[in-house]
Amino acid sequence: MSAPEHAPIAWHISSFSADGGGNCVEAGLVNDGTERVAVRHSKAPDGPTIHYTRAEWEAFLAGARAGEFDFHHD
Prior knowledge:
Helix content: 10-25%
Distance between the termini: 36 Å
Strand content: 15-25%
Order of helices and strands: EEEEH
Number of strands: 4
Number of domains: 1
Shape: flat
Largest sheet: 4 strands, antiparallel
């Protein structure tokens, strides 16, 4: 779902995204008072976005910090 025109988003790219090829995920707070976080692919800035509640986003970040999304190749 895309953010409404009246809800600007200040997009952020992780400083760990240093591949230079634009293969990055961007995230930003939806500025409409809902505290939703939007996520998109940096190569498709006009493409679709996924929106998460603040609680969902915080749960994801906690999992990422705990290594729950560290995919290892065996």
